[in-house]
Specification:
The structure is a single chain. The chain is mainly α. Helices cover 71% and strands 0% of the residues. The chain has 18 helices and no strands. Helix 10 runs antiparallel to helix 17.
Length: 407
């Protein structure tokens, strides 16, 4: 069922919930059966995540906006469920079983992306446009339009896809390609293209960082670059292509950008609206609220109400109408629970980072992705984001505790 759970991540919350429930029951039954011989010890990493979940429950009790608070509790239940499930059972799996589950995850990612492409082709065919990237045609090959058929926000789908790329690179580093090295590189190149199609500036930066991380780890294994096999050279070429596309993306994003004006503007209504100014206003409005309640925060139900009011006060009409959150997880967490909540979240990530010694590459991939995406998205405000964060943080930590390289 662990394999089924990992393969289910791309196919809806109902499928994930069923797989997670069955897996949890299975781990509990094994625990009861082997209680005396294999009783697990309570792990310190569970303390901050249980405390973090407790803040959601407390907010549900004291918030005046009860419906919003209830929704966040329902979403945050993934934290204790997933981590307790991993804590109870992942130590019982062999490395071969873990590898099969990782392959199932990557395969499911590839199948889902093929489905997305097929859907985009179908929609383009209906519109009758020769150019599938024609803006007038709706451009079904990028951002929300590309992933909406799976009820996925593009950035969140990108998180799972980048994780697949990291998993495949980890297999190459561990020399576990089973004689199919070129197939691994083709899959990595393909998933990199899918990531670029999602049209997220931060995803491109994270992808470039992951390739750079791989090259650093590879150099530690083989210091003579010219002794690398064609496989490694091809991965290097793929990384350079991603960096090249990323550079083009950055240039396009920066056209018309005036940092001096964008960061000083106080009203971005109407013609003054730009994407950069919107990001600045989200952060600025959030920070003004945080300064008023830095310790306790506003609660999960009331914080969004306060933020919308702050948008109005600072002339961000578009943000008010669209009900935008901070688009920054550090700010969003502080808005919800004050610096106490932010401290608990960062403490949890710090504990996960201790897995770097036993599981260096995959832990590095998780930390790079997590810490960077937190700057541009409030990913823990959606169920897909909580699922990604809870599962992969728990996976790298508990797997490292079992001395990954020697199982």
């Amino acid at each position: 069922m662990f394999l089924v759970l990992m393969a289910s991540f791309f196919w809806g919350h109902a499928v994930v919930n069923i797989a997670l429930g069955i897996l949890l029951l299975g781990h509990l039954s094994m625990l009861i059966k082997n209680w005396r011989s294999k009783k697990p010890r309570f792990d310190i990493m569970l303390l901050p995540i249980l405390a973090y979940f407790g803040l959601f429950v407390l907010s549900r009790i004291i918030d005046t906006n009860q419906q919003a608070a209830i929704n966040t509790v329902e979403r945050s239940i993934y934290y204790p469920l997933i981590l307790i499930t991993l804590w109870l059972g992942i130590r019982t799996y062999t490395q071969k079983q873990i590898d099969r589950a990782l392959f199932a995850y990557v395969f499911s990612n590839i199948v889902s992306s093929i489905f997305l492409i097929a859907t985009a082709v179908h929609k383009t065919w209906i519109y009758g446009s020769v150019n599938p990237f024609n803006v007038a045609n709706g451009n079904h090959f990028s951002y929300h339009a590309f992933t909406e058929v799976l009820n996925f926000h593009a950035v969140y789908y990108g998180l799972f896809t980048i994780t697949s790329i990291g998993i495949l690179l980890d297999f190459i580093l561990r020399k576990k390609t089973y004689g199919r090295e070129w197939l691994f590189v083709i899959a990595i190149a393909y998933l990199s293209v899918i990531t670029l199609l999602l049209s997220s500036f931060m995803l491109v930066i994270i992808l470039a960082g992951i390739y750079l991380c791989y090259l650093i780890f590879k150099l530690q294994q083989k210091r003579n670059l010219w002794s690398w096999r064609p496989l490694n050279i091809l991965v290097l070429v793929c990384s350079l292509i991603v960096l090249g596309f990323g550079s083009i993306f950055i240039v396009e994003k920066s056209k018309g950008l005036s940092l001096h004006e964008d960061f000083k503007v106080e009203n971005i209504s109407g013609e003054e609206f730009t994407a950069v100014r919107a990001r600045v206003m989200k952060a600025y409005s959030s920070w003004q609220l945080i300064k008023q309640k830095p310790i306790e925060g506003y609660g999960t139900g009331n914080s969004q109400i306060a933020l919308r009011q702050s948008y109005l006060e600072h002339g961000f009409q578009h943000g008010y109408e669209e009900n935008y959150n901070s688009h920054n997880q550090y700010l969003t967490t502080t808005l919800h629970f004050g610096v106490i909540g932010l401290f608990i979240l960062l403490l949890y990530i710090l504990i996960v980072a201790t897995a770097l010694r036993q599981l260096p590459f995959l832990t590095s991939i998780f930390l790079i992705t997590c810490l960077l995406i937190f700057f541009s998205e409030s990913i823990l405000e959606r169920q897909h984001g909580v699922l990604w964060f809870a599962f992969f943080s728990g996976f790298v930590y508990f797997r490292a505790k079992q001395h990954y390289n020697h199982v």
